[in-house]
Amino acid sequence: MNRHLGTGRALALALVGALLVLIPSTTPAAQAATPITVSQAVSQQGGTTQTVRGYVVGQPTATSTVVTSGFPNDYALAIADTAGQTSTSQMLYVQIPSAFRAQWGLRTNPSLMGKQIDVTGALSAYFSHPGMTSTSAFALSGGTTPPTDPPPTGGTSPWDSTYYAPAIGKTGTALRTSLHDIIDGNTRLSYDQVWTALKDTDQDPSNTANVIELYTGRSIAKTNNGGGSGQWNREHVFAQSRGGFDTGAGPGTDLHHLRAEDVTVNGTRGNKDFDDGGSAVPGCTDCWTDADSFEPRDAVKGDVARMLFYMAVRYEGGDGFDDLELSTVSGSAVPRLGDLDVLLAWSAADPVDAFEMRRNDRIHSTWQGNRNPFVDHPEWAASVFS
Prior knowledge:
Structural class: alpha+beta
Helix content: 25-40%
Number of helices: 12
Number of strands: 18
Radius of gyration: 22 Å
Shape: globular
Strand order of the largest sheet: 2-4-5-7-6
Strand content: 15-25%
Distance between the termini: 23 Å
Oligomer: single chain
Number of domains: 2
């Protein structure tokens, strides 16, 4: 695929390059007698080796982005002088070599959040941000090492004690199976009913006479729907031809992946995989496309990912429909869509917002009677799909 190198993509490639040349020491370096603070480390980015003491506050995924849940991998963590720090300017980004990821990576060990640790390495930029690279030692303050935790099982949701009760505490395949059982058996709509439903679920919060188009972000009159240029129509985020379904009641009318979208932009997306890069899409600011992929604007990348996570778990080969899957292999295979690694990164980088939460509530309460678990618990995606 032809790719443009946006900021996030360039940083990701820089990270891969750094990891390829990094050879971690099998013998941890001796720690300094008195660790320095994070603020001191931030101001001493000269490449010297130091031991720094700080609290784990999240995982950096870009220069100014640190996620605190739904950790995409075990490659890095951010530390600060206080456990409640939220300003990235007050954080040190720490690279985690492969030898240390099983014990110190946040995807595998989310309970490290808030713990005070000592880390030793070279004080040099990481993710184009004050950081530590060539890291040679990790320890909880006091010199101990943590046990390896199981994969994350989720935070909290108002639905945990009722709707999601059978899934709480489960991980991996068991979690996926439980979630499928919970969201299966939803009310099925006709394709005509989808028009009416989208006018409710995709309603512009600032203008109740309009809907918000998914990819363009444009607010457009609910009544201006159809198949003409400048109108909005029904976008299947999991493309019909890639899922092997039509517009009969079932996956083809499932609101959890159907969105209002500009007719022309919908056609440009077609049945392409989701990935980073390409050429700018006319009429869709910050959207990019090439021969086999489509990249939406940053503000809805997580929305797209979570809709596809839902579809892959909801449709497992029962109900007379194909088993929908997400893949890291691009192409036109049925019933498969990708790129899974990119979607996991998008979900982590673009948190759930109020629009997405309202949409989930409306689909559940008014239209289908089921919820998208990955909107209520975005951190479950890493456990189910990684």
